[in-house]
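Course exercise 7: structure representation. Students receive a sequence record and must write out the corresponding structure in token form. The form below is the worked example handed out in class, using Regulatory protein RecX (154 residues). Read each field label carefully; the graders check that inputs and outputs are placed in the correct fields and that the protein name is recorded exactly as given.

STUDENT ID: A-19
EXERCISE PROTEIN: Regulatory protein RecX
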Amino acid sequence: MKSKQPPRQSAKEAAVGYLSRRDHAEKELRLKLKNRGYSGADIDEAVAFCQDYNWLDDARFAALMLRNGIAKGWGLMRIRQEMKMKGVHDAIVSQLLEQDEFDWFEHAREVAQRKFGGSPMDTPKEQARRFRFMQYRGFDFEQIKYALNAEEEY
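STUDENT ANSWER:
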């Protein structure tokens, strides 16, 4: 059986390598370094080093995730869940969303229009299918109702 060898590069080098590829949340970076076999002290030192140089910033990472989620056609609930899975602290997410003036109702409408076009929603089965799709995307009930009934109101 093969025993795990200590990593060849320092924790700082590994952290910088990860952050050079893409932004990470602090929790996510700590987990990656831990899985590579670095000690807790080395991980703490590497994270502090990256934060000192502003290479690791959870607020910037959360803003990036918000923009990417919107571009993917996700709703607020899905984006919030993705941020939680990546380890972004709830306080950072709340602060970011308080500053945000994005119109989630219009976004839901655009996503529904892109997915379903002008095809009629004539059966309860079709309506349920569309509601499930929009829920999966992370929109709440009011946003879904607005998005799917928007063309009927005009």
